[in-house]
Structures are given as C-alpha cells and as structure tokens.
Amino acid sequence: MRWYYYQHLVCILVVVLASFSFCRDCCTLLVGANDTTDTGNDAAIDDNNDDDNDDDDDDDDDTNYYTDVEDAYEEQQELYNNIVMEEGSTKLEDIWDILHCDTLTNAAPNGHLPIHDASVWTFLRGAYIGTVGYMNSTIRYETLWRNGYDDAAAAAVAAATNTRKDPEKHESEQQASSSSSSSLSPPILVQYHPQKGRAVYANQIFQKGAVVRTKDYTACFQTGTLYRQFLVAIPPYLACDVLEWAYSGTQYGVCVALDEGSFINHASTPVYDPTTGERIMKRTRYYEADLPNDRPNLANDIAVREIHIGEELLADYEEFAEVDAWSEFGLGGWKAPDDTEDDEDDEDDDEDDEDDDGVYVA
C-alpha cells in the first residue's frame, strides 16, 4: 500500500514537472511571439516614420518643383510682356538687353558659342512652325530633320546619276543615290575660326555654279510681331543667336536660316581704289570688318567660283539683307559699329571742348 502511494506521488510529480516544462515552453513561445510582434510593430513604425519622412521629402521636392515652375512662368511672362506686348517701345537693341545676350555671350566657354547639332535645329524649326502656323511657314514638316547642305549634295548626286535610259533603272538609281548620299561625308564642316568664331568650311570641292545650299530651311516672318513671338518661344541663348543671324527686307520680311547656313560669315564684295588699284577695306554698316584676304565665294547660296576643300564659305550680306528694313517691321534697327565709334569720338571731342572752355558744347 505504501509503495502504491509513493508510486502515485511520483506520477503526480512527473505530470507537474511535465506541465511546468510545457507551460515554460509555451511562455517562451508566447514571449517570443510577442517580441516578434513588437519587433514587427517597431519595424512597421520605423517604416511608417520613413514613409512619413519620404513623404515630407516628396512634399519638399514638389514644393520646390512648383516654385521653380512658377518662377519660370513669371520670367517667361515678363519676357513676353517686354518683348511682345511692349513692341511699340522695345526695339532690337532693347530685346538684346532684355535677354541678357551680352552676359550669355561672355559666359561662353573659351569664348566659343555652341555649334548646334541637328536636335537644336529641329527644335528651332518646330518652334518656328508653331509660331507662324504651318500654312504660313516657309519650312515644311518633311525638312525638319535635315539641312540645306545635305539636300543640295543629295540633289547633285541624283543629277549626276540620272541617265534616264530606262525608267525602272532610273528610279532604282535615284533611290540608291539618295541613300548613298546620306552615308557620304558631310559636304561642309562647322568649326571655330580664330577671329570670327563659328564658321563654315567646305568638305568637298564645289564647282563654279554649284548649288551649295538649298533655301528649304530658311524661316521667314511676315510681321515683326511674329518674329518677337518666336524669340520669346525659344530659350534666351538661342534667341540671342537668332538676333545675330536674322536679316530683313521689305519684300520678304524678317528671315533667318535655321540650319548651318547661319554660321556663314560675311565678306564684302571687293571695291578697289580707282587711282591706286588697291582694295578698299570697309565695314558695311553693322557687319563685321573684312579680313584682308576675305572675298565672297557664294552668291545666293551658289558658288561664284570653284571652292576647295578646307576653304571657308563666305557671302556678302549686302546682297540679300536690307539694313534699314528693320524699322518697317517695328523693330527699329541695329546701331552700326561706325556710328558707335563716331559717337565715342563725339563724346571725346565734347569732353575736350568742356575742358578747354569750361562750358559743355552740345
């Protein structure tokens, strides 16, 4: 009987100990689960805090973005008001100052203004068509991605291979010449001249009478208002370029070549002293002064003589530009360099007179 009692007591202890061990494991599991839950909650809280911080950063970014947009809009609106809405009082030189063209020009690396690639020309042509409307545009959609020099070269290749013996053969040869011309080296290269800046050089021989460039990429504006709107529609550094490149005429309005044709530099048609026979070097209104050996080799984009590889392409601006026509379109005009020099000389003379007489002489 006593043995039975001890045996029963041992069984109870085993059950108690087993229960205690089970409960301990359960507690461990529960505590671990709670710890995991707390860790998960902590991680979730951290994630939420990170999300909140990210949201705050996004809000800051959005705020900065919209602030930048508003600033850009206000700046653009101010340009529009000053250049377009105030056209009665703002002229070419005023527009140059409003766009800070002197500052932009002086900030060019090494004094070199950019040589634009095809993407810039395409953008300018698109902005032009958007400004004047397609029906009034002198540039077609199909000419958005090429340039006048490549087109002229392709036309020359097509003409040279035009046998017209067999219509089918002629058509296939035309297609072949068109595709092969695009793979040929470019007919011109734009490089920096040590004195003139950007310049165009022949990369092939142009025979006398050859069409060097087509006019399909020249943009013309019938009114001064449209020209002003175009200047506002493009970035200021490009608008400053356009201001330098554009020319005017009473018969055609305001025009500018929206391809590498705008990099063609000026050279005056030679004028010789009838007595000595020496060439008279002159500065024609606002055009740059001639270099001693410069002579135009282009007239109306046609070679007036044989042009050799590496030779700079030059044109006499006076053959197509009327310097006094700007006023016809409400744009005033550019002050000629000679006028500026004369004004400076007059100021010096006036200062001398004031010093001598003690009275300013007008």
In DSSP terms, counting alpha (H) and pi (I) runs of 4 or more, how many helices?
9
The count of β-strands is: 9
Give the termini distance in whole angstroms.
Answer: 145 Å
How is the main sheet built? 3 strands, antiparallel
Encode the helix/strand succession as letters: HHHHHHEEEHHEEEEEEH
Whole-number mean pLDDT: 76
The percentage of residues in β strands lies in 5-15%
Which sequence of strands runs across the widest sheet? 3-5-4
Q: Outline, from the CA principal axes?
A: globular
Radius of gyration: 38 Å
Secondary structure: helix percent: 40-55%
Segments where pLDDT lies below 50 for 5+ residues?
1-45, 170-182, 340-362
Give the helix/strand class. Answer: mainly alpha
What does this structure look like?
By secondary structure, the chain is mainly alpha-helical. Helices cover 51% and strands 9% of the residues. A 3-stranded antiparallel beta sheet has the order 3-5-4. Strand 7 and strand 8 (302-303) form a beta hairpin. Helix 4 packs across helix 7 (224-233) and helix 5 (148-160) runs antiparallel to helix 6 (167-183). The longest helix is centred in the first third of the chain and has 84 residues, at 2-85. It is globular and about 60 Å long. The protein starts with a helix and ends in a 5-residue tail after the last helix. The model is unreliable at 1-45, 170-182 and 340-362 (pLDDT under 50).
